[in-house]
Amino acid sequence: MAFDYKELGFKCGLEIHQRLDTDTKLFCRCATYADTEEPVASIERYQRAVAGETGHVDRSTSFESSRGREFRYRIFRKTTCLVDIDEEPPHHASQEALETALKIAAYLETKVPDEIEPMRKEVVDGSNPSAFQRSMMVGYDGRLHFGKSSIEIPSIFLEEESSGIEDAKGELAIYRTDRLGVPLIEIDTSPAISNPKEAKEIAMQIGLLLRLSGRVQRGIGSIRQDVNVSIKRGTRVEIKGVQELDRMDSIIEREVERQVNLVEIADELKKRKAHVGKASDLTHLFKGTESQIIGNGIKENGVVLGVRLAMFKGLIGREINEGKRLGTEISDYAKKGGVKGIIHGDESMEKYKISAKELKDLEKELKLSKDDSFILIAAGKHMAEKAMEYAILRAELSMQGVPPETRATEPNSDTTRFMRPLPGGSRMYPETDILPIAPDKDAYMRMIKNRLSPEEIRKNLEADIGNRQLAEQMLWSYNYQSYLFIRENTKAQPSIIASILLEKFTELRRKGIAVDDIGNEALLEIFESYAKERITKPGIEELLKLVPNSKAEVDNYIKGKNLVRLTGREVEKLVKDNKGASAEETRNRLMAKYRLNVDGAELNSAIRKIFGE
Amino acid sequence: MYSEKISEEFKKHGIEIGDRISIKDSEGSNEGMLMPRPDVSKSDIIIIKRDDGYNIGIKYGKGTKLKRVSGKQHAAPEKRDSAKPQKGLPKVTLLYTGGTIGSKLDYVSGGVKALTKAEELLAEVPELGNIAELEVKQIMSVFSEDMTHMEWKEIAEAAAEAINNGSKGVIVTHGTDTMHYTASALSFMLHGLNAPVILTGAQRSSDRGSSDAFMNLICSAYAAGNSDIAEVVICMHADSSDKECMLIRGTKARKMHTSRRDAFRPVNNSAIAYVSINGSIRYNSAYRKTTSLKEKVAVKSSFETKVALLNTHPNSSPEMLDFLISKGYRGIILEGTGLGQIPINTKHSGYNWRSALKRAIDAGMVVGMTSQCLYGRVNPRVYSTARELADLGVIYCEDMLPETAYVKLGFLLGNYGKEDAEKLLSKDLSGEITARSETEWKSDI
Questions:
Q1: Is the pTM of this model over 0.90?
Q2: CB-side exposure of A604: number of CA atoms within 13 Å?
Q3: Considering only alpha carbons, which residue of chain B is nearest residue A43?
Q4: Nearest CA of chain B to the CA of A82: how many Å?
Q5: Which residue positions in chain A have pLDDT lower than 70?
């Protein structure tokens, strides 16, 4: 469906989150790498909503807290400390993270506060053991230039990464604390993006600037885009975790479609004077039911709850996105109460093996007319009540149009699903365990003065690498950071570094080799060994295939895997010892056997010398 | 607090904290709610809360222009149901004394400050209403470090009154830093105690969603309402999880960590019981049980303040002891090394405590010996130094904690004569000395 975005009053803004590659976490001195070791312990916690600075309990925190979930935190030896699990006050902020944040702020020409005030943003979904995320505004009133256009950057934040979720089952959610507290930069754009394509373009530009800071983590999840979308008659909806840029425009389009359809449904409901009834216990109607889904729900002292949706007939089943209906939205809310799903009146009852009599009794009990629909939930009493409360809430909201929500992208489609109500402003309060930070504004002014535009950086790269295409590729690559690091610390030729990091890496990645797991230290040692003529160019590839982890591992592989380069007299001796009938034959024989150990050009000159050509 | 200069400017423009203001300077203009200045930072910074909720600091300088945009926005806080007394549940009195458990962020000081109304805290834990018929009394609002024997007396009297008026148990909310001193004091002061007296607190302030206060209060309410423990105990997290609390005998408890929620540990003793967040109580070691006798609780609350707790260490000077003698101190608890030694045989006279110790004892001071090891029992028979100390008249306090011994000696000298105090110091009165050195055995067998 093609929309006239202007006509719809389309508004869209981005929030881009990027994890930084600093030595330590933001407010403790744990390492920032995602630990691959097994957790050493777990702890269990509960969280509850408390009133914020203004005395209000935020709608989103109160929703999460009402779910009464238990949170289990996995603890790791090297990447978890007492600060992470809320057993010790925070340490001072990482200077490295602050400097990187300012460097990024300088690219976006933002103002920097004279004093940065660390804040607590209340989050009670368990992703932070402290029940808040520490966050500070490091820049405001900035601007991003892209192509011939530009967009306002109202704010840049430096904050703590949350815990990664490992598993969530009903009332238990399991989180990993290894990535918790890693510095995270958040860049917001103003909601002035005019169409989905432009959103994608801006996201790419911001991603580029982040990488140019030279200190960002790479890999899955290290950059996340949240998209805020609304249309004039809709509401702001935040879509979390758009990881693949390629899908961003399509995801935004689907959200516009959803809002347009929800507004239409609301108009229709209002016209019909629809309303939502009160939940009642219908368990007695389903004694000895054939329906498996209801039978399972009431098996252990469970209940069946039903509610009348007056004048809703047909609208619950109306499609709002491909494969998604208003019923799906209601069901998504109910699922937050712990149930697997709901049954609604616009569905076929045969599907659930609900008998005609049961349906009739139900209609009688709920006093349904032919224009009414209904919702049924079967589960343990406590769970069913909670799920029904959320389902009713969503049904009521459908009469207003688009509820303000935080939504998540679906893994296999461009549609989204409900996560929680959109947080309001009442969840911010000062982090009093950390002193305010006075940024070095003179240094910041120097950063602004000395910063280079992406185009200038590309030109410099081109001059360095001597190849326009590689330079362009490098600018857009995550390996730019590695390139800078290797370039500064070895004498290896820039063109070789670039072609290996870009072309060779792509080739090996396609073969399934995890080249991106090779750390900078190991990469440096590989290029250093090459520059010092300890290994050959094919030797570089061999080492990359082994995915070494450290300098020592590279050295061990060079010796252990027979990759030491032969030079000078050694090559001449080789030629003498393997002399064949002709120079050509000798060369082929030696290359077949010593491809990894002998440099082609050096071999050729040795052959020329000995064969006297 | 803002500096005088800035406060003056605010006054001039009719600006008050909470007003919406605009600040203009050479860098541009900003608008937001004027926030109070934590008194910890430089005073030429003005803090405003932007509409997105973030605070930023803006330097006030020569060219800065201030303007009041509008007045305070009064957001009426949402009313929340507090714990309503429920009939038929055990009657429990909660005595609120202050501390982190009842504290909120103070935007003026930038730190946490004590709540003035206990109800505010209870509103955060509505579950309490389903556990006990709770009567809440705020008897003071005092930080842990500011507690004195006068507050101990007040708490002891309030606890006794509550029990004598029919409470099934008493909860005392208290700052954690000196909670074990107060627990010891109450253990000695309350006589004929026939109900649980539970001290509890929090390591994280109750204005954060992750506070340990919630579970500590819930478990305390269960223990006060449903247990048959007739002792003063501390109820705090058993470990880092929100699963169960540990009930630790008041005279055997010590804060062993600055910030962890399971900071309180039983020393030379097992936990009396574990209380789960769901209310089940698992008894773990012997304790004094409530009886059906209907005797009133009596309070003996006199306290001798001329008692000191002194730690000796390499290079420590006996002059400290002479100072206490000159000030008329009547008792001292030494925190000696190892099994209970202090330097009385060093050849360096400036560090030799022998003669000062003799002077103290001759002056009538009661001297008790405990160990800075905390874990284990002092013993005057193993090393000759300790034997000499015992011969000089130093009383060895068995496996009593130094802080408990200090409170006990102050209590004894306040309520009994010197001779009785000397006799009773090394005798068990309130579980402070155990005859058996038990331990939490761990084994793979």
A1: no
A2: 3
A3: B241
A4: 8
A5: 1, 34-35, 51-67, 424-426, 613
3-state secondary structure A253-306: HHHHHHHHHHHHHHHHHHHHCCEECCCEECHHHHCCCCCHHHHHHHCCCEEEEE
DSSP string covering A533-571, please?
A: TSS-HHHHHHHHHT---SHHHHHHHHHHTT-PPP-THHH
From the list B56, B57, B208, the residue facing A50 with the nearest CB is B208
Lookup result for tokens 């998209």: A227
For residue A342, report the phi and psi dihedrals to the nearest 5 degrees: -130, 170
Interface probe, candidates A27, A42, A46, chain B, greatest B C-beta count within 10 A:
A46
Angle at A514 between CA A512 and CA A518, to 5 degrees: 160
A45 touches chain B (CB under 8 A): yes
Rounded mean pLDDT of B240-247?
Answer: 97
A326-335 vs A381-397: helix axis angle to the nearest 10? 140
pLDDT tens for A372-413 read 999 999 999 989 999 999 999 999 999 999 999 999 999 888
Same fold flag, B4-70 and B91-299: no
Helix (H) or strand (E) holding A211: helix A196-212
At residue A461, the 3 state secondary structure works out as helix
What are the structural domain ranges in chain B?
A: 4-70, 91-299, 307-425
Closest CA to A543 of A533, A39, B83, A559: A559
| Candidate from B54, B209, B243 with C-beta closest to A131 | B209
Q: Using CA atoms, how far apart are residues B410 and B392, in angstroms rounded to an integer?
A: 21
Tokens of B192: 């004929």
Longest dimension (CA), chain B: 80
User: What's the mean pLDDT when you consider all of chain A?
Assistant: 90
Using an 8 Å Cβ cutoff, are B153 and B301 in contact?
yes
Distance of CA A2 to the CA centre of its chain: 28
Residue B205 CA: distances (Å) to CA of A27, A58, B64, B341: 19, 19, 38, 40
Which strand (E) or helix (H) includes residue B145?
none
CA-based radius of gyration for chain B:
26
Single-letter amino acid, residue A408: A
**Domain B4-70 grouped into CATH 3.40.50.12780:** no
Chain B residue with CA closest to A61: the answer is B209
Residues 64-103 of chain A with CB under 8 A from chain B are 65, 82, 85-89
Residue B324: count other Cβ atoms within 10 Å of its Cβ: 21
Active-site amino acid positions of B: 100, 176-177, 255
Interchain CB contacts (distance < 8 Å): A and B: 140
Q: What's the pLDDT tens digit per position in B263-315?
A: 999 999 999 999 999 999 999 999 999 998 888 999 999 999 999 999 999 99
CA nearest B279: which of B343, B222, B194, B210?
B222
Distance from C-alpha of A317 to C-alpha of A373, rounded to nearest angstrom: 10
Query: CA Rg, chain A, in Å?
Result: 30
Region of residue B126 (left: phi > 0; alpha: psi -120 to 50; beta: else): alpha
What are the backbone angles phi and psi of residue A305, rounded to the nearest 5°? -110, 140
Both tokens of A323, joined, read: 């494969």
B91: which 2 tokens?
A: 């009657």
Distance (Å) from the alpha carbon of A59 to chain B's nearest alpha carbon: 11
Return the amino acid letter for A604.
Answer: N
- A179 token code pair: 């990535």
Query: What residue type is assigned to position B438 of the chain?
Result: E
Query: How far is residue A406's CA from residue A238's CA, in Å, rounded to a whole number?
Result: 5
Residue B102 corresponds to which tokens in the numbers above?
A: 């009842």
- Architecture of the domain spanning B307-425: 3-Layer(aba) Sandwich (3.40)
Please state, in angstroms and rounded to a whole number, the distance separating the CA atoms of residues A197 and A201. Answer: 6
Q: Confirm if A437 and A118 have CB atoms less than 8 A apart.
A: yes
The CATH number assigned to the domain with range B91-299 reads: 3.40.50.1170
